[in-house]
Amino acid sequence: MVTASALLAAAALPLLAAAAPSQCHTWKNVKIGGGGGFIPGIVFNPSEKGLAYARTDIGGAYRLNSDDSWTPLNDNIGSSNWNHWGVDAIATDPVDTNRVYLAVGMYTISWDPNNGAIMRSTDKGKTWSETALPFKVGGNMPGRGIGERLAVDPHSNNIVYFGARSGNGLWKSSDYGVTWAKVSSFTNVGTFKPNASDPSEYQQDPIGIAWITFDENSGGSKTVATPRIFVGVADLGNSVFVSNNAGSTWTAVAGQPTGFVPHKGVYSPGENVLYVTYSNGGGPYDGTLGSVWKYNITSGAWTNITPPSPSGDIYFGFGGFAVDRQKPGTIMVAALNSWWPEGIIWRSTNGGSTWTSIWEWVSYPTRAEYFAVDASPAPWLFDPTVTDHEDVGWMMESIAIDPFDSNHWLYGTGATILGGRDLLRWDATPRNVTLKVMANGIEETAIQDLLSPPTGPGILLSGMYDAGGFLHRNLDVAQTPTDQFHLYFSGTTDIDYAGNNPLQLVRVGTNLQELASSNDGGVSWNKIYASNNAQAGTIALSAGGDIMVWSPSNMAPIRSQYTNAFTTISALPQGAAIAADRRNNTVFYAGSTNKFYRSTDGAVSFTATATLGSATTVYKIVPNPTLAGDVWVSTSDGLYRSQNYGSSFTKIGGPTVGGHFDLGAPKTSGAYWSIAGFFTIDGVAGVYRTDDAGVNWVRINDAYGFGAADANRVAVDYKVYGRVFVGTNGRGIFYGNPSCTSPPPTSSTTSVSTSRTTTPATTTTSSRTTTGVSTSRTTTTSSRTTTPSSSSRTTTTSSRPITTSSRTTTTSSRTTTTSTRTTTGTGPTQTHYGQCGGIGWTGPTVCETPYTCQVGNPYYSQCL
Ligand SMILES: *[C@@H]1O[C@H](CO)[C@@H](O)[C@H](O)[C@H]1NC(C)=O
Ligand SMILES: *[C@@H]1O[C@H](CO)[C@@H](O)[C@H](O)[C@H]1NC(C)=O
Ligand SMILES: *[C@@H]1O[C@H](CO)[C@@H](O)[C@H](O)[C@H]1NC(C)=O
Ligand SMILES: *[C@@H]1O[C@H](CO)[C@@H](O)[C@H](O)[C@H]1NC(C)=O
């Protein structure tokens, strides 16, 4: 690590052939709070008090802290191994509790070209090594909530098993996960496909091995391999298999139920019982029938212990299952998806002979709810104005009771982790537990757009899948329902503002006809009913705010003026990157492959004006926020700039590949904008910044990888120099400042060792295919191959923040040169929402009546 001052000095040097210098930054999450996505797995270590892990399907794994917060463990993962953010299984070692393992990989189908890997750590996930597998792993595939399909032998902890998808069978390591070999004696590798009648490869790939569970009481010695091992497979025939000789031979367990997929197989050491939950689907969204069974290992008897449904019939499968190790026979189970009227969790204190549920019908439509919700750690998750919400949750594949504390429990939903520390109140009279949001520190949202607005109440605006997006008034405080962009929208894919009237915004969303506008900087939104059947993609709003150009994901770009019906722009190809000039209302820009297009008639027509080298993709077009005709374009062939409305371009030295980027507050007042984004410079991919319009570059991502570069979004703060926002696909939003006060991510380097039995495929490469999404119940499969979108949003600053609106362009008859901002008195005054102070600020410090200058942070005071 180098100090900031040394780096600032280095940055001033001319660009050399060696890698661009790095400048230390402090990166942390922009706090949304509470997760924001599906939590497929939660595991407690049975031997070390307080040690637990959670995994996500697109954003890596986390470790629990004693204050109920979580520490991310995979923040160093970048473009070369982006699929490692898909965690299909996690195993914590019961013997050497410092050891933990992950099975990583995003998709087992063509969306993900990379094979999977087993990652292993000997320091609780601070640092990792890994072994490449010779096949793919599906952290974001159907069935990702079953499991865990990775397990450490509780007696001989050098032995680790992994159950693969896609018919690849059961694998075993005897050297702490360094080398792996297929268990050839295990032949029932699972034939169940998520949906055999859907032709898509996503629905056709077999889910494979579901879980591996050791009978820790079996065997005389606690130091040789555990003899009895159960393996569940996704199969509608026999699905539970057992070995009594440490994995040499396997048989189907006699008398087992068939017809469903076993989601969990949980061993209860105090009872010597294996509990199994079943669903007729692979999960996590489906399931219309299921059951819960208990297998008495001593007697060999199977007993159906399916809990009674509050409504009488079972219309769901069963997912998460937990045993209380302190109280043998105390168990809990969740309905995987009870969409209506509410998710269901049951608890039994007698091994499933009788159950109580978390709510019951009193008489329709009245229900007794034996819980209270505490959403204080992430208020946005429970909007009190929405009456038909599901408090208990959905996609409940994972429930865990702390093995050292019967009051402490956690469970994953499609949106967060709930649970609490008063679980024994379930057994008291009256029955009443607190469902608290227990996902502090987990930031799992999939960001589609970021915008640092020139003015208005927000520091940042975000668009994202599932949660919709937010107006961020504070970067470090959990979000509220008020500032969430959920109205009319399932997800927001792009936001843009009018250059001459920045409080005016438009945004587009993932579903058909999702288009809305705001006139107050994103506080309130109105649906625009002119949207044809377009969906998703990007939107550009003209400088004056009257013309919209929308480049949707499902059709060629379209145009509307005054919110009239959209018409097709025939000159532009589907998926084109688009942007509006920030000052000239008639000028729009577009790009696709290596073609640059311009419109000078308000997007009625476009003509190709220039060629962008050998680019195959235009990632983003960012016009200068205050100067017409000055425009920057990032492409697969580097970064280009035009200063003549796109008539011709200069290629910027340094970047060979450009991803998303932005222009923001300059280093010094009057200087050109600082520019930052995802670039490859001197062969090194990372986040880079230039303060001199591309002459010198400095790398600023430290040890952070941010996952797939081309799935990421960037905003450079309009007002605060050096503050850069990175939106990721599964790890939420980060912001970085040029300082070194906090440590780099806990994960550090990885080393690759290879399997001894098969040729391992190379880990990694491709960064050009981006990942998909997951999470909420409304998106089913989602957009997997997001074409790195495009442009439009932009943002940014001037050397002196402009203030709003058309007022600045109209010249009053009373003054010849400037506008209403120059008033009588001691000096210039700032308008509403404008900056009026902060470190380095040289502009007006007095606000126009009736506003006062209020300190937001040391760098920024605002007229409010
Ligand atoms: C399976 O796929 C078919 C064809 O796409 C679809 O009609 C059906 O609803 C799907 N079934 C489930 C359970 O999702
Ligand atoms: C399992 O079966 C044995 C033998 O019948 C019996 O003694 C034991 O109580 C059973 N265990 C449970 C948890 O029901
Ligand atoms: C449980 O507690 C909550 C909040 O204190 C209350 O609203 C609810 O009525 C209680 N439920 C029962 C069944 O007592
Ligand atoms: C805006 O651009 C158009 C087309 O290039 C040009 O004719 C016009 O003069 C420009 N307007 C301003 C105010 O610069």
UniProtKB/TrEMBL annotation:
Question: What GO molecular function terms would the record report?
Answer: cellulose binding; hydrolase activity, acting on glycosyl bonds
Q: Name one GO cellular component term.
A: extracellular region
Fetch the CDD domains from UniProt: Sialidase_non-viral
Signal peptide as annotated in the record:
1-19
Keyword Signal appears in the UniProt entry: yes
**Where in the numbering of this chain does the CBM1 domain appear?**
828-864
Could you provide one GO biological process annotation from this protein's UniProt record? xyloglucan metabolic process
Q: Does Iron-sulfur show up as a keyword for this record?
A: no
Q: Which SUPFAM superfamilies match?
A: Cellulose-binding domain, Oligoxyloglucan reducing end-specific cellobiohydrolase
- What PROSITE patterns is this protein classified in? CBM1_1 (PS00562), CBM1_2 (PS51164)
Task: Provide the alphabetized UniProt keywords.
Answer: Carbohydrate metabolism, Cellulose degradation, Glycosidase, Hydrolase, Polysaccharide degradation, Signal
| Chain residue ranges for the region called Disordered | 734-834
Q: Where is the composition biased (Low complexity)?
A: 747-829
> Which family does the record assign?
Belongs to the glycosyl hydrolase 74 family.
Question: What name is this protein filed under?
Answer: CBM1 domain-containing protein
Q: What is this organism's lineage?
A: Eukaryota, Fungi, Dikarya, Ascomycota, Pezizomycotina
